[in-house]
Amino acid sequence: MKPPKDLEKYQEHYDEKKFGAKLPKVARKAGSKLVYAVLLLYYVLRSKAVSNADKAKIYGALGYFLLPLDILPDFIPMAGYTDDLTAVIWALHTVWKNITPEIKAQAAAKTAQWFGDFDQAAADEQLGK
After folding, report:
1. Closest CA to 68 of 112, 29, 110
2. What is the DSSP letter of 3?
3. Distance CA 16, CA 117 (A)
4. What is the dihedral of CA 48, 54, 60, 61, to 10 degrees?
């Protein structure tokens, strides 16, 4: 799986307030799998155990997610978040060793808040870990 070209350059687009405002607005359109994956990155980013190199990858993926006009603009039905998902999953795979059961539980609980019944084990399996 290849991330969008030069993913780390998108870290300049990450902003905590924009992230907090965008995620609840787009959750239904983006889908529970992408929301859970984004939340995993968000919570692992807040961990002290993450290296600066890994943080740069996470900031890049989350910054890319925040951009409304990227390779596939988010407003395109059924395809708009495909490139975002690719970037997020790539970042997840590079930092998976830092994702603790507590981080998974936090992300799953927040995802369940927005989507109701959420199967964390199935989501983890789909995300490849």
Report:
1. 29
2. P
3. 27
4. -90
What is the secondary structure of 7-72 as a DSSP string? Answer: GGGGGGG--HHHHHHHHHHHHHHH-HHHHHHHHHHHHHHT-TTS-HHHHHHHHHHHHHHH-SSSSS
> Nearest CA to 43 among 93, 108, 129, 94?
108
Number of Cβ within 10 Å of residue 122's Cβ equals: 11
Tally the C-alpha atoms within 13 A of residue 1's C-alpha that lie toward its C-beta. 17
Q: What CA–CA distance (Å, rounded) separates 65 from 29?
A: 13
**How many Cα atoms within 13 Å fall on the side-chain side of residue 108?**
15
- Contact present, 55 and 8 (Cβ < 8 Å): no
| DSSP state letter for 93 | H
**16-75 pLDDT tens trace:** 787 777 778 777 777 888 899 999 999 998 888 888 888 888 888 888 877 765 444 444
